[in-house]
């Protein structure tokens, strides 16, 4: 078995071990396992069966992550995307008033289009056309973004009507659970203790049990996964040629493409698997894994699949190959049958992992030449728009737009590739379509 894993994932060549990979996969699982709770909760507001959604979420995550592991051989997990599931539930089914079957059909069509775009290298061309300065900025923005997620999950940072964000309530146990985990993790890192992130999560969870915030599973910790029959392949073809279907599919394509691209570039760069321009040889395979994951996910009955930024926690723990993703997928398989045990870990206990990873990811900011306004400002906008809009995709949108506009207006149009011009125009159209849709809803 050891020789097979070595041959398949080239562990020695990637300077890693089976133990490191398996541990990294477990950590990635722990930092993203919340999706098993959150995704069914959001999508069930459309009328979908919540129990079936739990199983569909797990199965889609397992399939897509194994695709990334065995085909692309990258330490990146995939699952139904946050933000994309909200668009599915609250925009398509809520504001637009369509059924969840219509929304699933849109996701299926998006997946098929992505498979075609990947096959003809269109997605890979787009990724490679992203300017190097933005590829350096993307990990920084993602680092700040996932740090914000960690702080928010712990209640350290909360929303405020007056100031948008504010310091949380320090009387809440979740704050102290997160701080204890953060201190333990940091001290273990300083002492070069392997598995420090996982140990920090375990210590924080135990502290949560002591405080009474974490409930231990009862005797029935093993259960049969609920059936996905109520939502399996429930497509609706009546409106596939409508303008609204076009808008919905385009929006899904847009957000998924750049969320996935941003995550891939950020995580792969931090793993040291990308070249100096931010490109990596498995790019096409990674994008194909994402496209096929989305297509299969829609058949199973869940929203768009995307690469998960939480994969950076596994990379930070030493994950370098697809074996990390295999480990993560195995944990999701176990979660199907041991859900009470795995899901007892509170969000506050996984927050320190996200904060620590955020620290690691901002290091590439040193590569950016901020003295050149034509590159410094687009990089800055890429960085700040990610946490401030709560979207990796929006950071890339405004980074790319500002890069194209400033370069052209400054007479440096040769620095802008033809692909970037096309992408900038598409971004403008997307913004205009979004604005017109909002105005029409307001008028209605």
UniProtKB/TrEMBL annotation:
Transmembrane region(s): 21-40, 52-71, 83-100, 106-126, 138-158, 170-190, 197-216, 245-267, 287-309, 321-345, 352-370, 376-406, 418-439
Subcellular location: Cell membrane
Keyword tags: Cell membrane, Membrane, Transmembrane, Transmembrane helix, Transport
Bilayer topology: Multi-pass membrane protein
Coiled-coil region: none
Stored PANTHER family: XANTHINE/URACIL PERMEASE C887.17-RELATED, XANTHINE_URACIL PERMEASE C887.17-RELATED
Name of the protein described by the UniProt record: NCS2 family permease
Organism: Dysgonomonas termitidis
């Amino acid at each position: 078995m050891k020789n097979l894993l070595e041959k398949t994932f080239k562990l020695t060549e990637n300077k890693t071990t089976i133990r490191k990979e398996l541990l990294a996969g477990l950590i990635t699982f722990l930092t993203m396992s919340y999706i098993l709770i959150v995704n069914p909760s959001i999508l069930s507001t459309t009328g979908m069966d919540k129990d079936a959604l739990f199983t569909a979420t797990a199965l889609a995550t397992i399939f897509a992550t194994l695709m990334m592991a065995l085909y692309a051989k990258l330490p990146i997990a995939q699952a139904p995307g946050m933000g994309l599931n909200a668009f599915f539930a609250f925009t398509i089914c809520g504001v637009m008033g369509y059924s969840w079957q219509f929304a699933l059909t849109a996701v299926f069509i998006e997946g098929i289009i992505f498979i075609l775009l990947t096959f003809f290298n269109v997605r890979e061309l787009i990724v490679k056309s992203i300017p190097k300065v933005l590829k350096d900025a993307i990990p920084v923005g993602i680092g700040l973004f996932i740090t914000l997620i960690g702080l928010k999950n712990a209640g350290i940072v909360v929303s405020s009507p007056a100031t948008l964000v504010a310091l949380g309530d320090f009387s809440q146990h979740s704050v102290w659970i997160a701080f204890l985990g953060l201190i333990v993790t940091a001290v273990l890192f300083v002492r070069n203790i392997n598995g420090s992130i996982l140990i920090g999560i375990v210590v924080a969870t135990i502290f949560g049990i002591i405080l009474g915030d974490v409930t231990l599973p009862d005797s029935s910790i093993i259960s049969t996964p609920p059936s996905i029959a109520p939502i399996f392949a429930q497509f609706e073809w009546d409106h596939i040629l409508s303008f609204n279907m076009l808008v919905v599919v385009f929006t899904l394509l847009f957000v998924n493409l750049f969320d996935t691209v941003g995550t891939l570039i950020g995580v792969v760069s931090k793993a040291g698997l990308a070249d100096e321009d931010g490109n990596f040889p498995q790019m096409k395979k990674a994008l194909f894994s994402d496209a096929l994951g989305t297509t299969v996910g829609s058949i199973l009955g869940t929203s768009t699949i995307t690469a998960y930024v939480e994969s950076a926690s596994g990379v930070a723990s030493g994950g370098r190959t697809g074996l990390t993703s295999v480990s993560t997928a195995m944990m999701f398989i176990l979660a199907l049958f041991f859900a009470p045990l795995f899901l007892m870990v509170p969000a506050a206990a996984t927050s320190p992992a996200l904060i620590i990873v955020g620290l690691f990811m901002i290091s590439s900011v040193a590569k950016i030449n901020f003295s050149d306004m034509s590159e410094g400002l687009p990089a800055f906008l890429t960085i700040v728009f990610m946490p401030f809009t709560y979207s990796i995709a929006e950071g890339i949108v405004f980074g790319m737009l500002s890069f194209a506009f400033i370069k052209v207006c400054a007479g440096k149009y040769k620095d802008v590739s033809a692909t970037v011009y096309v992408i900038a125009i598409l971004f403008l159209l997307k913004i205009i379509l979004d604005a017109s849709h909002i105005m029409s809803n307001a008028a209605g």
